[in-house]
Structure formats: structure tokens, C-alpha cells
Amino acid sequence: MARNQSDSFEIPPEMRAFAEKSFEQARQAFEGFVSAASRTVTTFEGQAETARKGARDIGQTAMAFAQKNIAQSFEFAEKLVRARDVDEILKLQAEYIKEQMQTLSEQAKQLGDRTSEAVKNTASAQH
Q1: Angle formed at CA 101 by CA 99 and CA 104, multiple of 5 degrees
Q2: Distance between CA atoms of 59 and 2, rounded to whole angstroms?
Q3: Which of 33, 35, 65, 70 is deepest in the core (most CB within 10 A)?
């Protein structure tokens, strides 16, 4: 069966141009969306990595403090075992408490500083 020209349908040039333009705009919009989504994922990954690093640093610092405090407690216990009398025990106890209060105060400040720094770094990674 042969087709004659009157049976064929031709798309008017204006309609073809409109369709092509619409397609191109849709493609550009999709590419823009994919690009924005990719940037967002990269930003979130960077923030998560910064937060992980900050948390790891804070955790390591806390562990170092715990080790130091345990070592000081053993030193104190050793001194107590060697004490000669109650007066020496009371003196050692007072010194230990004073030293521990100073140590804990310094450690709390350092942990606070590191936490603030980690939060600041995570926030700056958002921008």
C-alpha cells in the first residue's frame, strides 16, 4: 500500500521549534536539579566528615583524660598504702582532692573548647 502525500502528517516548523525548545528547557532544568542535588550531597558528606572528626577528637581527648585520672588514682592509692599514720592519710587525701579538682576543672575547660571548636568547624562546613 503506497502512501501518498495527502496521507502524511507534517509537524509545522513552529510546533517543532516549540517542542525542541521545551525539551531543551526540561533537559537544562533536570541537569540543574541533578547538579544541585550533587552539591547538596557533597556538602552533607563534608559536614558529616567534619562532625566525625570532631567527635573522634573529643572522644580521644576524653579517653586520655580518663587514663590520666585513673593513673593519678592509682598513685594516690599507692601513697595511701605507704602512709605511716592517720595525719599523713588526711594530708594525702586533701592534696589529692585539691589536685583532682584542678585537673577536672582544666579537663572540663579543654573538652568545652574542643566541643565548641568541633561545632564551629561543622557549622563552617555547611557554608
Answers
A1: 105
A2: 82
A3: 65
3: pLDDT strictly greater than 70 = no
Cβ burial of 54 (10 Å; 0-12, 13-18, 19+) is buried
Eight-class DSSP state of 126 = T
Q: How far apart are CA 122 and CA 117, in angstroms?
A: 8
50: number of Cβ within 10 Å? 19
Whether the per-residue pLDDT at 70 is higher than 60: the answer is yes
CA atoms within 13 A on the CB side of 75: 11
The residue type at 24: E
| Residue count of the chain | 127
As a whole number of angstroms, the distance between CA 54 and CA 120 comes to 10
